[in-house]
Design brief:
The protein has five helices and five strands. Helix 1 crosses helix 2 and helix 4 (84-90) runs parallel beside helix 5. It is globular. The longest helix has 11 residues, at 41-51. It has helices at residues 14-23, 41-51, 64-74, 84-90, 107-114, and strands spanning 33-37, 56-61, 77-80, 93-96, 120-123. By secondary structure, the protein is of the alpha/beta class. The mean pLDDT is 86. It has a five-stranded parallel β-sheet with strand order 3-2-1-4-5, with helices on both faces.
């Protein structure tokens, strides 16, 4: 069905679209740090799209080994999910691509971060 519809002609991923939108809000992307939350398919796509366009990519994932594997493939840095607040403090942009039933980016986690400086936040 997708191949025979207009969706079949779309070659961009939601991850790359999120990255493009985030970049429109960054003054100096090559000096920016990006945090990708989630190392599933969408997180991988976002991480790959970011890798050559920002100074540093952080990857946080529930499964630490999977996050570390993705970070290694893109030249990024894996961060433990329980240190999400610290990773956000280091980041200029955060793209949440985690497949979870609960909220990871809670009011409490974000409150301290947004007090520091602007944060581009994409939840995909």
């Amino acid at each position: 069905m997708r191949a025979s519809s207009a969706l079949g002609s779309v070659r961009r991923t939601i991850g790359s679209l999120a990255v493009d939108e985030a970049f429109s809000h960054l003054e100096d992307p090559m000096r920016a740090t990006a945090l990708v939350i989630g190392a599933g398919e969408v997180g991988k796509l976002a991480s790959r799209a970011l890798a050559s366009r920002v100074g540093r990519v952080l990857v946080a994932n529930r499964d630490a080994a999977r996050g570390a594997e993705l970070a290694a493939t893109i030249g990024g840095e894996a961060v433990p999910l329980d240190r999400l607040g610290e990773a956000l403090a280091r980041s200029d942009v955060a793209i949440s691509a985690a497949d979870t039933r609960g909220a990871l980016l809670t009011r409490e986690v974000l409150a301290g971060r947004v007090a520091l400086r602007p944060l581009v936040l994409m939840d995909i």
